[in-house]
Each structure stands twice: as C-alpha cells, then as structure tokens.
Amino acid sequence: MGETVRIENGLIAAEVDPLGAELVRLQDEQGRDLLWDGDPAFWTGHAPILFPIVGALAGGVLRLDDEEYPLPRHGFARRRAFTLVERDAARVTFRLEADAESRAVYPFDFRLDIGFLLMRTTLTCEALLHNPGAAPLPASVGFHPAFRWPLPWGGARESHRLRFEKNEPAPIRRVDGDGLLRPEHLPSPIVGQDLPLADALFEDDALILDRPESRLVSYGVPGGRQMRIGFAGMPMLGIWSKPGAGFVCVEPWQGIADPVGFAGDFPAKPGVVEIAPGATRSFAFRVDIGADGH
C-alpha cells in the first residue's frame, strides 16, 4: 500500500489508496477500524474496484470479433494507479483513462472516475464511467468492500448477521473451481430477511444473489449498533469471506462471472451494460455506520 489520501468529517473517516482507487480504511467517530486490514494470511484486499468485469471469464480471455484478450478475474482497475483529480476535507475523486496498457486487454476507450464522499455518518462511493469513443462501451462495474467480522462495537463473531430490507426467498448461485457461474440454483441460507454469518457459508466460495429483492443490508449483532450498506441501482450482490478470516465482503455488482459454457462475445456476457458514445453512467454504494446508541 502506498501513500493514502485521508478524508474525514468528525463522525467518520476514510483513507483511499491511489493504487486501484481502493478504500483501505474506514473509521467511526472513535477511530475504530471497520474495514479489513488486508492481512496476507487470508486476503490482501480491502475494498477493490472491479472493472471492466466482475468475476472470471471463461479461459481468462475477453472475446470480441474473433479476437481474444487476456483479462484476469475482476479486471485490471484494482492494479492500476489512478490520478487524483479532486480533493477537499470530506471528498476525493480519482481517475483512470484508457491507455496502451488497458487497450491490450480491453480494447475500448473509457474514463473511470471513482469518488468518495462523507456526509454525516455515511460514506458514498460512486464510479462514473464515461464513454469518450464513437462506439458503445460494454462494461461491468462492481464493489468489493471487506468489513471487519466481528465489528469493533461488541458482540461475538458468531452473533453477527446480515439483515436484508426485504425477504430474500430466491435461490442463490455459486461458482465452480474456475470461478465460472454454475448452472444450478441452490437453496438460500437466508431465512426470511436474516443471514446469520458462519464460516461454513463460505466453504464453497461466495454466495451470489443474482436477483435480490433488497437494495439495503444491515450488518451487525442483533440489538447492537448496525452498519447499513445501500446499493440502489446495482442489480446483484455477492457475499464472501474465507473460513476463519476476520472479514465479510458485501459486494454490490453490475455484472457476474461467465456462466459455465458461455463462449459469446463480451457485449453478450450476462451483466454487461453498454454505454452510448458520449454518455456517462453512475454505479454506487453507500455505507452508513450509524452512531453509538444505534
């Protein structure tokens, strides 16, 4: 991790690394850390930006017009240095634009701005994807924030849960050993609105909600202080950890891994959206950390 940029407002503070425009620290009013620390014994990430794909591609390649371009899982943005374009006490924006390196794996022109804004007890992260080219821009965008499990607000690790704003009866999806979306729909471990967190949930990788009813999830110990993660406009959600790790990822996605057997061109990939020439599209999530006294 390089030199980070810190923003704060007295109620909440955040630090962002220009490498990947990645949120690497989120703190409450007492300076308690809410984001995973990136312990390499489990996972070095904190909250990477997923672009221009979410998940894995079949064979690790993007296919377009009979050409193949090598593109790793979750894309390249998280490994690229962004440029700082705006900063004040409670706001910061970073930018990544297409160049020769990106076009070698993703043959499109783009401008991607990642902004972070603090308002009272809420952090909003917004990705603005602009198409400066003359042809439609196909892309996916996802967020991958890893929150401490347990949170530093009290309560045992095994007492933590996710509570969805609506009942979530739909089956979940899983990926196979290559990271591709398996065809079967599996019974959901969510009971009504509640998902009690346990290591066993993640023995088979992430839980994927490809058609959730909710756009808001609360995280914490029942009866205790709650973190609220909102993802209006993001149609899919991944929930991931590793057994024994001190984090849980709540991941709003516009996009998903290639289904097993998918061999189409990139614009036909499930979850990909197309941005018209000259247009800009917003993708965002927010985290409200609440306050003591709930």
Summary, kept brief:
This protein has 294 residues and is an all-beta fold. The protein has one helix at 100-103; strands at residues 5-8, 13-17, 22-27, 49-50, 61-64, 67-70, 83-88, 91-97, 111-119, 122-130, 137-139, 141-143, 146-148, 161-164, 194-196, 207-209, 216-220, 226-230, 236-240, 247-254, 273-275, 280-288. It is 1% helix and 37% strand.
Which helices and strands, and how do they pair?
Blueprint: E1 5-8, E2 13-17, E3 22-27, E4 49-50, E5 61-64, E6 67-70, E7 83-88, E8 91-97, H1 100-103, E9 111-119, E10 122-130, E11 137-139, E12 141-143, E13 146-148, E14 161-164, E15 194-196, E16 207-209, E17 216-220, E18 226-230, E19 236-240, E20 247-254, E21 273-275, E22 280-288
Antiparallel strand pairs: 1-2, 2-3, 4-12, 5-6, 7-8, 8-9, 9-10, 10-22, 11-21, 12-20, 13-20, 14-15, 14-17, 16-19, 17-18, 18-22, 19-20
